[in-house]
């Protein structure tokens, strides 16, 4: 009888989580119910599963609303009925049209009109829904005769009075008004809650025809969904046989390309993988991915294939990935196995500049009706909750800021704030709006609107109305098409090298960069600023602690730096064992045999499979179930329990003592939750090496590419410093030399106009276009005549020195600009000055102080270019020790003067601490640790130079200064304002620092790790 139920997927309207809605139906004796969320089908697939599990007949539909007004409710008789509604709603979403008052001519859909919107004539499949409180109207003659087309309409929106209040709050959020301004039409009726079925039927006992009509609809709605069948595009060619034939041919061609004509091990693995791919019917998935890569290569794009797909030798032979699974001992079962029914996973990265081209190809190649992005539910989060709910209660912005930024315990305790907290906490984890998944694309065999309506967000690619988890549940394998700036660094560097030096670097050839001597030397020294994944202070410190000088150690480092591994304490243990290989014993021989590369520590997820396989004797596929279940990706506790039982049975059969097996299983459990996919690490390491090779041999071009891709871990200033340290001469933007992005001529680097934040993007592009079309600017007058720019824009360019080619001082240029522009008429541009010679103005000679340019640069760029920050200090002291000397000062106290690069917040059991990264006056980096007691007395005070006093600790080749005291050192006053005191130190505040905050529990101490360093003797 419940044909109109809303879950919380009726965004900012429904208040009932889906599972709770189904449970309530069970408690109310409901045998059939319809989920009809507003303009969406987000919840229908979980709803169908939940109802089937509990013996309720699920009906699925959509409540069509427009401008907050209910038009009609659609219920699908079958799959075609859902597709009809999906196509109808998609068309209106895409065309942004108003939904019509009357439903279209659906063939397989029942339509229920509310009493307030009944058309003059009803079609055969159309009915009028009548609520219990409206039954009294049936005694009126005009309605009495229409009972044969009426059904029970008891909408469900909330459960309790408190949830009704929550519903009103949601409606106020949605309509962007305060609660007191809501009118009755804005929210649902107070009767829209579920009641026991017999109570509802009792209200209609005088109208048996209405009940019969309702029962007829329930009986005739038989929407069935097959959750087992894959929904992706089935074949790349025409059928499975021709797909497998093509995949086999391509794999064998790639086998020769990657391994030569005679490699029995590689050949055997290719054959084994092809057999599993065929058995699981995933050949189409591989071929479509190969097709996307083929197109990318034809456009000259660089890609990185990673994810668990890199465990596959077939993907390596197809050129999808670039790491050899044999070299890294990667298990194919980590990617695909006969027990793994969930989809395979290729993550493929492109440069952020090229990703949209790849997406356009996919949509064009496979058809707009068959391709869409996964959706995602953006939930109400802590900050947004208090802002949204607080606004509804009429709180001012200052109060909203306090509520959002501070923990609840410190909030005011007045009655309004208590209401905000109470209802806000009810909203936690509720969906707030739908958005686009960042990278997941679905390519469907059938039209994708068979499963969902589509929405078109501003980005311009359609999205389905369910998330990746639902997509996986209903049989879709998503293609992850990602973008990252690291590939942009590599790609742009190669182009710059060819343009600047005429050298063509084949960076795709990974043999060129991987384990290359100079790159390994940079790696060992932590000289990796700008390089993908290995440039952060923590990673550079780890590389130095490990003296990392080869590919396999870098693969391990890429894993153990991950938060999960570090949190478990295994990073510390790995560093210890790497540096002290003779100070520990392998716990068991199988750890030595299988995990010797990582000193008996399960660093990778694949290691869990290895131990389960080689110690426990489980099949590799069962080992993967173990890994997935323990890492939270496996949903079946039953499957995990079964594998656990099989593990102990198998161990006993192999003659292992029970106690030893229990300890090894405990270690597997403790490792599995934090370990990282080795294939991911291997892919990251290859890309890191590509970056590092370019940095080692072409440092200036590399740093320019990093700057143009808008950096990585650090701000632009740091990469400009690194370019200078690499031999570049840095020039401020120039209207005759600079492009929009930073450009390089030999070793001369001209900062791009994009770095002038105050300059309009339109003007910056206009300058470059005009110069390319009509030649360089001859003078300031010529520039003003050709470029439509006001005095503010001209001043920015003058102050940054963009007209220094004229030979005139900034002061002289400012006078000329004002003289010209005071009477300048834009309509006379290209007429007034074009024939006139440059006027020789009699200009006053105005002296400029030595560092005025530097302060202009700080104001416009946030850092000085024409000098070092150290040159601006009031003191000439530069510290007693330089960064290069720190290794010789272990356990000694040092005093250093340094410029702050970045600091990272780290929670500890003793309170908040920070790690700092600095450069000394020679431009060399070093690192500091600041504990809570030191920070209390000597806190950070923003960007700039500090005097540091601390003790040097060398931890496995890596020096860190534990800071005891520090003081920010004063810069000279701004010489541009020598006549006034109120602005002499204002610009100094624009000098920046990079700050990264961490919200996590403190990492464990060494004694908490609980990883034995001694062999366990069987007993």
Task: Please give a quick description of this structure.
The chain has 1019 residues and is an alpha/beta fold. A seven-stranded mixed β-sheet has the order 1-2-3-4-5-6-7. A five-stranded mixed β-sheet has the order 8-9-14-11-10, sandwiched between helices.
Explain what this protein looks like in three dimensions.
It is a single chain. By secondary structure, the protein is of the alpha/beta class. Strand 18 and strand 19 form a beta hairpin. Helix 13 (382-392) runs antiparallel to helix 14 (397-405). The protein is globular and about 100 Å long. Residues 831-835 have low confidence and may be disordered.
Radius of gyration: 34 Å
**Proportion in helices:** 40-55%
- Secondary-structure-based class equals alpha/beta
How much is the average pLDDT? 90
Through-space gap between termini? 66 Å
- What is the subunit organization of this protein? single chain
Shape: globular
Number of strands: 23
Number of helical segments with 4 or more residues? 37
Main sheet properties: 7 strands, mixed
Percentage of β-strand residues: 5-15%
| pLDDT < 50 stretches | 831-835
Strand order of the largest sheet: 1-2-3-4-5-6-7
């Amino acid at each position: 009888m419940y044909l109109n139920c809303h879950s919380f997927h009726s965004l900012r309207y429904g208040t009932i989580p889906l599972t709770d809605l189904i449970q309530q139906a069970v408690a109310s004796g409901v045998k059939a119910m319809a989920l009809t969320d507003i303009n969406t089908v987000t919840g229908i697939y979980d709803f169908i599963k939940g109802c089937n599990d509990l013996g309720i007949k699920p009906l699925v539909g959509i409540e069509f609303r427009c401008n907050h007004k209910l038009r009609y409710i659609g219920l699908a008789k079958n799959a075609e009925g859902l597709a009809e509604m999906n196509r109808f709603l998609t068309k209106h979403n895409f065309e942004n049209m108003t939904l019509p008052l009357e439903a279209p001519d659906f063939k397989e859909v029942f339509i229920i009109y509310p009493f307030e919107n009944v058309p003059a004539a009803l079609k055969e499949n159309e009915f009028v829904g009548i609520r219990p409180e409206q039954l009294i109207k049936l005694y009126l003659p005009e309605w009495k005769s229409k009972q044969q087309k009426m059904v029970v309409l008891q909408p469900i929106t909330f459960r309790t009075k408190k949830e009704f209040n929550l519903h009103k709050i949601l409606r106020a959020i949605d309509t962007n008004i305060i609660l007191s301004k809501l009118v009755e039409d804005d929210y649902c009726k107070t009767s829209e809650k579920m009641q026991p079925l017999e109570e509802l039927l009792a209200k209609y006992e005088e109208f048996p025809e209405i009940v019969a009509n309702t029962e007829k609809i329930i009986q005739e709605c038989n929407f069935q969904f097959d959750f087992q069948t894959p929904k992706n595009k089935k074949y790349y060619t025409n059928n499975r046989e021709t797909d497998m034939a093509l995949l086999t041919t391509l794999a064998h061609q790639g086998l020769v390309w990657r391994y030569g004509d005679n490699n029995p091990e590689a050949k055997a693995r290719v054959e084994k993988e092809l057999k599993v791919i065929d058995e699981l019917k995933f050949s189409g998935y591989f071929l479509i991915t190969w097709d996307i890569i083929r197109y990318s290569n034809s456009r000259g794009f660089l890609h990185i294939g990673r994810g668990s797909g890199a465990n596959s030798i077939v993907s390596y032979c197809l050129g999808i990935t670039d790491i050899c699974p044999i070299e890294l001992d990667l298990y194919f079962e980590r990617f695909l196995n006969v027990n793994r029914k969930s989809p395979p996973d290729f993550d493929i990265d492109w440069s952020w500049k090229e990703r949209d081209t790849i997406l356009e190809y996919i949509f064009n190649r496979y058809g707009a009706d068959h391709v869409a992005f996964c959706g995602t539910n953006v939930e109400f989060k802590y900050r947004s909750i208090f802002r949204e709910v607080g606004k509804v209660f009429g709180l001012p912005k200052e109060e909203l800021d306090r509520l959002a930024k501070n923990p609840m315990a410190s909030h005011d305790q007045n009655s309004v704030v208590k209401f905000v907290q109470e209802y806000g906490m009810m909203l936690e984890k509720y969906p707030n709006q739908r958005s686009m998944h960042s990278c997941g694309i679905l390519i469907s065999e059938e039209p994708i609107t068979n499963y969902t309506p589509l929405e078109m967000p501003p980005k311009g690619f359609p999205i389905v109305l369910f998330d990746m988890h639902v997509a996986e549940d209903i049989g879709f394998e998503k293609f992850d098409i990602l973008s990252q700036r690291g590939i942009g660094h590599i790609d742009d560097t190669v182009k710059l090298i060819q343009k600047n030096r005429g050298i063509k670097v084949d960076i795709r050839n990974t043999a060129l960069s991987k384990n290359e001597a100079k790159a390994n030397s940079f790696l060992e020294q932590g000289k990796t600023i700008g390089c993908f994944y290995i440039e952060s202070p923590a990673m550079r410190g780890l590389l130095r602690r490990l003296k990392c000088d080869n590919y396999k150690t870098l693969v391990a480092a890429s894993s153990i730096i991950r938060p999960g591994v570090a949190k478990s304490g295994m990073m510390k243990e790995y560093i210890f064992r790497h540096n002290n290989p003779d100070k520990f014993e392998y716990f068991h021989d199988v750890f030595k045999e299988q995990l010797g590369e990582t000193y008996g520590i399960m660093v990778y997820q694949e290691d869990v499979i290895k131990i389960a396989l080689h110690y426990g004797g489980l099949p590799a596929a069962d080992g993967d179930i173990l890994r997935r279940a323990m890492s939270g990706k496996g949903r079946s506790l039953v499957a995990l329990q079964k594998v656990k039982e099989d593990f102990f049975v198998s161990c006993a059969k192999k003659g292992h003592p029970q106690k030893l097996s229990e300890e090894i299983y405990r270690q597997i459990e403790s490792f599995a939750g934090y370990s990282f996919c080795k294939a991911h690490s291997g892919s990251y390491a290859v890309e890191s090496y590509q970056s590092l090779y370019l940095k080692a041999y072409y440092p200036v071009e590399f740093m320019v590419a990093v700057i143009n891709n808008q950096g990585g871990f650090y701000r632009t200033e740091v990469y400009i410093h690194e370019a200078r340290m690499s031999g570049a001469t840095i020039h401020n933007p120039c209207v005759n030399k600079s492009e929009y992005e930073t450009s390089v001529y030999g070793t001369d680097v001209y900062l791009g106009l994009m770095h002038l934040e105050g300059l309009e993007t339109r003007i910056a592009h206009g300058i470059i276009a005009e110069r390319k079309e009509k030649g360089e600017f001859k003078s300031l007058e010529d520039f003003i005549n050709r470029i439509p720019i006001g005095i503010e824009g001209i001043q920015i360019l003058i102050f940054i020195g963009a007209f220094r080619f004229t030979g005139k001082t900034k002061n002289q240029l400012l006078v000329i600009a004002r003289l010209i522009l005071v009477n300048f008429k834009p309509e006379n541009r290209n007429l007034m000055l074009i024939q006139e010679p440059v006027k020789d103005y009699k200009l006053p000679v105005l002296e400029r102080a030595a560092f005025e340019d530097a302060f202009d640069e700080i104001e416009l760029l946030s850092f000085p270019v024409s000098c070092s920050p150290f040159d601006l200090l009031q003191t000439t002291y530069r510290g007693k020790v330089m960064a290069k000397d720190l290794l010789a000062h272990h356990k000694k106290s040092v005093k250093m003067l340094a410029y702050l690069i970045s600091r990272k917040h780290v929670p500890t059991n003793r309170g908040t601490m920070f790690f700092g990264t600095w450069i000394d006056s020679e431009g060399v980096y070093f690192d500091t640790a600041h504990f809570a007691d030191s920070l209390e007395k000597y806190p950070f005070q923003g960007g700039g130079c500090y005097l540091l006093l601390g003790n040097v600790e060398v931890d496995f080749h890596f020096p860190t200064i534990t800071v005891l005291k520090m003081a920010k050192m004063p810069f000279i006053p701004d010489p541009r304002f020598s006549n006034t005191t109120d602005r002499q130190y204002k610009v100094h505040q624009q000098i920046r620092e990079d700050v990264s905050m961490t919200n996590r529990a403190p990492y464990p101490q060494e004694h908490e790790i609980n990883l034995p360093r001694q062999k366990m003797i069987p007993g």
